[in-house]
Amino acid sequence: GPCRNIAGVHRLQRLKSFSFNQPRPRLTAAEIVAPMQLGFEIDLHVHYKRHARDADHFAEAMVQRAAKVGLDGIAFTEHGQQLPRDYLDELGRKYNIVIYSGIVIACGEDVLVYGIHSPELCRPGWQWPELWQYVQDNGGATVLAHPFRKRRFIKIDWDGFPPDGIEVASRHIRPELTPDIDYQAKRRGLH
């Protein structure tokens, strides 16, 4: 469709696309998950053209489309950078939709980080244990994005440093991988 990231591929209903561990105090992921548990639909992995080559629209067009298709919220998760919080708040007010800020960090795997808005996250060269600890220390949440997208194994130590969630539905996840991803999520207590 004209807005593949939102029109149904990542669309969430009662945590179908993400599973999270029990929230820690200050864990912003809990603030994101709570509305979904009440039946709200939130797309937690949206890029936009100016910053990510795999996005189809600019931020405002994405927000407008999300509101039009009936989503209650979206999260912009750019590769290596975060959109200004003031800009996202302005768009949210304009279209009456909740907008979260996140970031995608490549550290052996693509990891989505929520709940921390800091220039420190935008620096290159993160290693998974270091990123995991930083996010833990700052009250954020990590989600392993599109697992098994490029290979049949995960290149980070997700047993020693467990992410808070695993993306289980995306246009980057082939349908035949869903049972393996569901198994890994259940094995790690994320379902």
Describe it for me?
29% of the residues lie in helices and 19% in strands. It is an alpha/beta fold and 191 residues long. The chain has a 7-stranded mixed sheet with strand order 1-7-6-5-4-3-2, with helices on both faces. The longest helix is centred in the middle third of the chain and has 11 residues, at 85-95.
Compact summary:
This protein has 191 residues and is of the alpha/beta class. It has helices spanning 5-9, 28-37, 59-68, 85-95, 128-137, 178-187; strands at residues 18-20, 42-46, 73-79, 98-106, 110-114, 141-144, 165-167.
Structural key phrases:
single chain; 191 residues; alpha/beta; 7-stranded mixed beta sheet; 6 helices; 7 strands; globular; disordered N terminus
- By DSSP (H or I, 4+ residues per run), the number of helices equals 6
Termini gap: 29 Å
Give the overall shape. globular
* Main beta-sheet strand count, sense and barrel state: 7 strands, mixed
Give start-end ranges of low-pLDDT stretches. 1-28
**Overall pLDDT:** 75
Structural class: alpha/beta
Helix content: 25-40%
Roughly what fraction of the amino acids lie in strands? 15-25%
Q: Which strand order does the major sheet show?
A: 1-7-6-5-4-3-2
SSE order in H/E notation?
HEHEHEHEEHEEH
Report the radius of gyration as a whole number of Å. 15 Å
How many beta-strand runs? 7
